[in-house]
Structure formats: C-alpha cells, structure tokens
C-alpha cells in the first residue's frame, strides 16, 4: 500500500465532524512541517521538511546536505513516483530560501517610536483602569511586532500587557517590563537591534560554532504571547564550561516549536550547535544533537558546583546585567538553608541573607516548592529573578531535591 492508501484507510475511522472541520485547517497543514524518523541498520535519523507556499527546506539529523534519508522522505511525499535521475542531469537552480519571519531592521525607527510612546502613556496613566491613549499605544506596538522574529521584545511587551489587563496588576512586574522596554528602545535607536546578516561560514553574525558540547537541561518554561504564539524556553548547563545557555522558539497556534526533544531533565550531546554572542544565558541552537543517556550523580555534582551560593553575588550579577537587554535573568541558586515561614519557605545563604520566592508573580509555583520541601530537602532552585523595588525574588522553574538519599531535578509547573 502507498502512503496515500494508508492515509485514506486511517481517515475512514474518523467522525464526520472531524473530516468536515479538517477542510478549514488544510491551508495550515500546507504551510507547516512534516517530521519523519528513519531507521537504517542501527542508526536512527530524523528528517524535517518545512514548507510554506513555494519555498521549503529539508534537514536531516545525519548532518549531510541533500542526503538519502531526506530524499527518501520527499520521494514518499511526492507519491513514490519520482525515479532516480541520471548522474549527468543538468543542475537545478537553487531553491528559494525558506521563508522566515521578517526582520525588524527596516521597522526599527517605527518600533522604537511606538514602544517609547507605550512607555510614556503607561507612566502617565498607570497600570489600572481604562486609558484610550495607553491602550491605543499598546495596540500599535502589537501590530508592528506581530510578524517579526524578536522574541525578547515580544516577551517584554507581553509582560506589560499582562499587567495592564490584570484585575490586580503587580507594580513590580509592570515596572520591570517598562524598564526592559526602555532599554530596548535605546538599543534600537543606537542600531543595536536584531541582526539578520549572515556570516561567511553560514552562521548568523555574532554566532559561534561549537561541537560535542555536553548539555544538562536545568529548566523549562512555556508561555503564550498576546500575538497568538507559543513561546518555549529550555535552559541548559554546559557541563564542561559551566555556563548557562537558553534554547528558545516561538510557534504559531497548533504548530510544534522547533526545539530539542525529550523528557525533562534531558542530557544531550550537542554534536553541532551555534551560540549567539550576548549576556548570560546566551541563546543556543541545536543543529545536531543526540541523547547522552540518563542524568547521573556526577552531572548533578557539576550542576551544584555551578550554582550561586551567596545572595549578595546574585544581586551583583543582576545589577551588572539588568541593563543589557530584556531577557530574563535566570539564576541557579543553592541555599545553605531553606527556612520555613508563615507564607512558605524562604531560601537563605550561610550569612543569613535571604532570597525569597516570587509569590506575587506565581503563587501556584511557589506553593509547589513548599510542598516539595515537605517531601525532602531542596538543594537548589533554578528560575528567573523578579525585582520588587529594592528586593529580588526568584520565580522557581526547577528544584533539585533530595528524597531518601536520592537527588532529582524536578520541574515546577
């Protein structure tokens, strides 16, 4: 049977309503991606074909360009009627590059002006109540950013929008979002905005290529933006360099983000990765990677050895990096003590300085940490820092907990 025959057979078991609704979604399917897994001997390869209108690209985990694995998938999708061509066939013109989201470069002046107006109107009218000028400024920025690949700027706008639409807006979170937006406007006006110019080696400007990088996933977060996108972030610790990296991707509704795969926490060997220049955590793109097995005790020893242990060092690092751009300041913190209190646990270092949990930002996550502490002993917490006036707090994404002598990294949802 051909793929088409198998698809028709499978479709017969679907209800009529699903088939009827499917016609509305067909255009979305025609502008998306298809992933296939091929097993050749003892090797498994993943082929991804991404397409939109007349442009497409196909990549394979084997790392070779135009490999047999990718060709096999395309032959099947083409109807298994594509014969192998002669070796002396004339070369085909190169396909058009894959259509990606437009760059912000040509809109930077308009984006900077609109974002500054949003900050100005928010400062005039505050976070509460109705204000037409402020809401119109927000709508203008949302419209300018809708189809651009600028995830950090979008996230800062999304954070401010959540404060403006909340029944009880948090002034600290709203103020942090305004600070980030102001910083980004300065970068845009100084020409330090998003760069899309490719370098001679095929990597983007400001990117470095690395091979055989051992990576431990230490945090994962998923958010929805006001642009209708899903934004996924994974934080990895480079076990050799002991630096924190972040992998991020945005996806339209119904589409899977282009991220490394696997359960949390995963241990990967980045066979080929690119890492963008910038403040910590730098952005990493997994071009080729393989699973490195299960997380072992020595991996967790490296993780603990990479954690901050002094609250004053957390403050110094935050102050030195807070003005660089709008991304979250994620910290790995290993407390000397976890102190119970009437509102829940508080993290403290050996000097008695405290790093509280950001309960006003997400009470549910912080309550989950309280529950974990009752089950065992919290050895470390991973999460972004939230600034409340002169106070910093940590919003937990992950905890390293020891229960009956066994240590595990547990994701806080």
List the helices and strands and how they pair.
Blueprint (H helix, E strand, L loop, with lengths): L2 H9 L4 H14 L3 E8 L2 E10 L2 E6 L7 H10 L30 H18 L6 H14 L5 H15 L5 H19 L17 E18 L5 E9 L4 E9 L15 E10 L5 E10 L5 H9 L5 H11 L8 E4 L3 E3 L6 E3 L5 E2 L7 H13 L1 E12 L2 E4 L3 E6 L2 E6 L2
Parallel strand pairs: 6-8
Antiparallel strand pairs: 1-2, 2-3, 4-5, 4-7, 5-6, 7-8, 9-13, 10-11, 11-12, 13-14, 13-15, 15-16
Helix pairs in contact: 4-5, 4-7, 5-6, 6-7
Structure report:
The chain has 413 residues and is of the alpha+beta class. It is built from 10 helices and 16 strands. The protein has helices at 3-11, 16-29, 68-77, 108-125, 132-145, 151-165, 171-189, 297-305, 311-321, 363-375; strands at residues 33-40, 43-52, 55-60, 207-224, 230-238, 243-251, 267-276, 282-291, 330-333, 337-339, 346-348, 354-355, 377-388, 391-394, 398-403, 406-411. The protein has a 5-stranded mixed barrel with strand order 4-5-6-8-7. Strands 9, 13, 14, 15 and 16 form a 5-stranded antiparallel β-sheet that branches. β7 (267-276) and β8 (282-291) form a beta hairpin. It is globular. The two termini are 44 Å apart. Mean pLDDT is 76; it is low at 86-104 and 193-205.
């Amino acid at each position: 049977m051909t793929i088409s025959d198998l698809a028709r057979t499978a479709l017969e078991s679907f209800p009529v309503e699903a088939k009827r609704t499917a016609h509305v979604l067909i255009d979305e399917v025609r502008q998306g991606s298809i992933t296939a897994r091929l097993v050749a001997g003892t090797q498994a390869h993943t082929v991804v074909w991404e397409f939109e209108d007349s442009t497409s690209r196909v990549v394979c985990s084997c790392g070779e360009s135009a490999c047999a694995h990718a060709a096999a998938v395309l032959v099947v999708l083409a109807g298994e009627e594509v014969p192998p061509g002669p070796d002396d066939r004339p070369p085909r013109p190169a396909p058009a590059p894959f259509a990606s989201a437009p760059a912000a470069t040509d809109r930077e002046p308009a984006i900077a002006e609109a974002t500054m107006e949003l900050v100005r109107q928010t400062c005039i009218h505050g976070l509460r109540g109705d204000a037409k000028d402020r809401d119109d400024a927000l709508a203008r920025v949302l419209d300018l950013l809708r189809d651009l690949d600028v995830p950090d700027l979008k996230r800062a706008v999304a954070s401010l929008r959540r404060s403006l639409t909340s029944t009880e807006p948090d002034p600290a979170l709203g103020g942090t979002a305004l600070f980030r937006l102001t910083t980004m406007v300065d970068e845009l006006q100084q020409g330090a905005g998003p760069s899309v110019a490719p370098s001679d080696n095929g990597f983007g400007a400001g990117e470095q290529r690395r091979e055989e990088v051992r990576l431990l996933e230490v945090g994962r977060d998923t958010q929805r933006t006001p642009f209708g996108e899903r934004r996924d972030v994974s934080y990895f610790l480079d076990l050799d360099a002991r630096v924190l990296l972040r992998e991020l991707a945005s996806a339209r509704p119904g589409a899977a983000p282009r991220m490394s795969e696997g359960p949390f926490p995963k241990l990967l060997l980045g066979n080929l990765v690119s890492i963008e220049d910038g403040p910590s955590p730098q952005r990493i793109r997994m071009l080729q990677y393989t699973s490195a097995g299960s997380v072992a005790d020595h991996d967790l020893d490296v993780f603990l050895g990479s954690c901050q242990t002094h609250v004053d060092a957390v403050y110094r690092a935050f102050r030195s990096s807070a003005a660089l751009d709008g991304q979250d300041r994620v910290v790995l913190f290993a407390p000397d003590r976890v102190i119970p209190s009437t509102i829940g646990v508080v993290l403290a270092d050996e000097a008695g300085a405290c790093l509280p949990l950001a309960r006003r930002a997400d009470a549910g996550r912080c309550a989950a940490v309280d529950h974990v502490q009752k089950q065992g002993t919290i050895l470390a917490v991973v999460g972004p820092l939230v600034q409340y006036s002169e106070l910093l707090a940590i919003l937990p994404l992950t905890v390293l907990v020891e229960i009956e002598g066994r240590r595990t990294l547990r994701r806080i949802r």
